[in-house]
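Subject: for your reference before the review

Hello V.,

The reviewers asked for a structural picture of the protein, and I figured it would be easier to keep everything in one thread rather than splitting it across files. Below is the amino acid sequence we used in the manuscript, unchanged from the supplementary table.
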Amino acid sequence: MQMNKIRYTKGLKNSIVIANDVKQSRFSNLNMGLLRSVFLNHTVLVSTLLITLLFSCNRSGNTGSDAIDITENPHLNTITVTRAQFETSGMKLGSLEEKSFARKVKANGFIDVPPERKASVSVKLGGFVKGFTILPGDKVAQGAVLFTLENPDFIQLQQDYLEARAQLSYLKSDYERQKSLADDNIASQKSFLKAESDYKVMQAKYSGLKERLKLLNINTAQLEEGNIESTVKVFAPIGGYISKVNITRGAFVSPNDVAVEIVNTEHMHVELQVFERDIVDIRKGQPITFFLRGTTTHPYRGDVYLVGRTIENDTRTVNIHGHIENEDQLTNVLPGMYVEATIDVATNLRTVLPSEAVVSLDDQYFVLVRVEDNKEGFAFKKQQVTIGEFNNEWTEIINVADFKADDVFLVKGAFNLIVE
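And here is what came back from the structure prediction:
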């Protein structure tokens, strides 16, 4: 009985051991499955990363050799350029400089000519246009015929002149005769005074008619020979170019009408308008730089010649008259063209960088400061700056205190590095 109990107990222990072994075996199998799954997932992830890196390298290797490889470290805020890229792109280094920098006053205006070089041609006596051959843009010499007019009044005026001339000759003889008789107390004083009055009245009429004919450009010497003209010629008062033609054949032109306009462009100047707040700084002789409106590639230069003494009430501006340098080189520049100008009103010593070194981005301005220089290339740091006065060559740097005296800047080629 005792033996059976022991066997039973041993059998029970063995069963328990066997059951525990089975449970441990199942748990081990489960762990091994999980490990195998994790291993496979990691293997797939690593493979994917390797393929992506290889694909990226292949794409990078296929890029043209001339492309600039810019490596930007977001943590260090630096841009790295190799020496080969630096030389191929024509980049240059420079430092802050002290330059005599002129303060500029902006102005708008137009090209003009002096008043004596413009002419508005009108007629002295109205008439009908008989003929003309001029067109806007034609060049005419002083005294050239512009157009001809006809009017019966022209004929009547010449006739009155000839009659007055004939009567004047008779009245002059009678006056001299009456004067001689009055001196000898043969004729009455009344007869002499009457002859004198008639003679002087006719003399005045004759002189007036002669001057009127001169205004019509009628040659009185030829007229006195009996050559009455039915038309009159209108001549150019100055030489230059026809700017406007306001007549047509057969139209009546009155003395109040401007028939033709002429402009002489041999001497041109700029008429500028400066706001009243800036006029206190304007002086005769100050340099002017201006561009034709819409162009910035061809600057013209001149200087202030006259400063106006009155303010335009509607615009609150003062007129500035400027002379232009090298007028013979003003090709395709015409009176009336609008210009945008700057006047250098003061010269101060300022700390500047080349304007190409300063890049505008989102209403802010940046420069590239060199932070590393080794045999492989350069490293630059993008830094914001505050600018002051500027022109095509130089830009004033206001926050100079943010830089060291020996800082080196990328003065050529910064735009592509910053923008890209």
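For the response letter, the relevant points are probably these. The longest strand covers residues 338-354. Residues 143 and 236 are 5 Å apart (CA to CA).

Happy to draft the paragraph if you're swamped.

O.
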